[in-house]
Specification:
single chain, 4-stranded antiparallel β-sheet, 11 strands, globular
């Protein structure tokens, strides 16, 4: 399985971005898709998860601002990020079943 993230970039505080993660093979079979992030000098953080049954969970730091979704027909997982803050600046990684990682996409939020 290959995971390719896109959609990162530079945005101002309170702006929005949508990250996409395209899988090279079907993600239809039961699995959990995740978004992690890692900021310079900080530990990696689990941001959001979504199961094959569309159950979602979020880190407290992003609840109410971020939304994870998946489109199994397109083999794609999304992370909609709203009301962005400078502390959201990090490399964001798409992960399948907590074990297969994408290459990451940089998100930078300017103050």
């Amino acid at each position: 399985v290959q995971l390719v993230e896109s959609g990162g970039g530079l945005v101002q505080t309170r702006g929005s971005l949508r990250l996409s993660c395209a899988a090279s093979v079907t993600i239809f079979r039961p699995n959990t898709m995740c978004w992690y992030r890692q900021a310079p000098g900080k530990q990696r953080e689990l941001v959001a998860t979504i199961t094959s049954g569309f159950t979602t969970n979020y880190a407290d730091s992003v609840k109410g601002r971020f939304a994870i979704s998946r489109d199994n027909a397109k083999n794609t997982v999304y992370l909609q990020m709203n009301s962005l803050k400078p502390e959201d600046t990090a490399v964001y990684y798409c992960v399948r079943d907590y074990s297969t990682w994408g290459q990451g996409t940089q998100v930078t939020v300017s103050s």
